[in-house]
Amino acid sequence: MAHHVLDHPLSGHLLAELRDKSTTPDRFRSLTESLTTLLILQATYGIRTKETEIETPIKMTTVKVLDQPLAIVPVLRAGLGMVQPALRLFPDVAVGYIGLERHEDTAIARSYYSKLPRLGGRYTLCLDPMLATGGSAAQAISLIKDHGATQVVMVCIVAAPEGVAYLQAKHPDVPIVSASLDEGLNDRKYIVPGLGDFGDRLYGTP
Ligand code: PRP
Ligand code: URA
């Protein structure tokens, strides 16, 4: 499936400050929310709509409204920083949670929490800012599909080519939307140039 990389000038501008190592956690959270708003607009292009009639102060007219419920599933911890913009844009959204943590040495993700609503019929966004090896995203999407989702979009901020290839191989039906496609991974499986450990920068932990 397609990988869409945002090319709006504002997206690049926000990402530049997010990458900067001198950006404080407070500013980092705010930038994450602004950038996620742009990502969600792109990621929900495929949501179903229907035509209906309304009356403006001038005349009756045909309008298009959303006709499909949305769900978001942030991957803890870092994905939590992407929740607020989704709630603001889609107040009726259903929210599920998946907790995954990469092992420091192997970079293999271990699942430690999962609380998901029934996702059948819902247009579902998996939110995780970093797509590095792709192991976390692939596990999260498997869990999401186990709960009935058939239309899933992976939404991330920074993606590595290795993670994109891995996720496309594991879940070829899932499009990816990101704000950048970086050079690759270093020997610790961190994205290069990336922005470091997203969860640590979001929450001010070492
Ligand atoms: C980060 C990130 C992703 C994962 C990406 O989480 O938020 O979930 O790494 O790496 P991958 O593509 O190689 O699986 P991390 O495990 O550091 O947990 P945290 O969000 O709790 O810090
Ligand atoms: N997780 C992060 O937070 N950053 C990376 O570069 C890779 C995985």
Describe the fold and architecture.
The chain is an alpha/beta fold and 206 residues long. The protein has one domain: Rossmann fold. It is 32% helix and 30% strand. The protein is built from six helices and 15 strands. Strands 1, 4, 5, 6, 7, 8, 10 and 12 form an eight-stranded mixed beta sheet that branches. A three-stranded parallel beta sheet has the order 9-11-13. A two-stranded antiparallel ribbon has the order 2-3. A hairpin with a 4-residue loop joins strand 2 and strand 3. The radius of gyration is 17 Å and the shape is globular. The termini are far apart. The mean pLDDT is 97. The structure holds 1-O-pyrophosphono-5-O-phosphono-alpha-D-ribofuranose and uracil (URA). 1-O-pyrophosphono-5-O-phosphono-alpha-D-ribofuranose (PRP) binds next to strand 4, strand 6, strand 9, helix 4 and helix 6. 1-O-pyrophosphono-5-O-phosphono-alpha-D-ribofuranose binds next to strand 4, strand 6, strand 9, helix 4 and helix 6.
CATH uppermost class: Alpha Beta
What is the mean pLDDT?
Answer: 97
Secondary-structure element pattern, one letter each = EHHEEEHEEEEEHEEHEEEEH
Largest sheet: 8 strands, mixed
User: Count the helices. How many?
Assistant: 6
Supply the helix-strand structural class: alpha/beta
Distance between the termini: 36 Å
> Which architecture name does CATH use?
3-Layer(aba) Sandwich
Q: How helix-rich are the residues, as a percent range?
A: 25-40%
Instruction: Estimate what percentage of residues fall within beta strands.
Output: 25-35%
Our Rg estimate from Cα atoms comes to: 17 Å
CATH topology: Rossmann fold
Bound small molecules, by name, code or SMILES, are:
1-O-pyrophosphono-5-O-phosphono-alpha-D-ribofuranose, uracil
Q: In total, how many beta strands?
A: 15
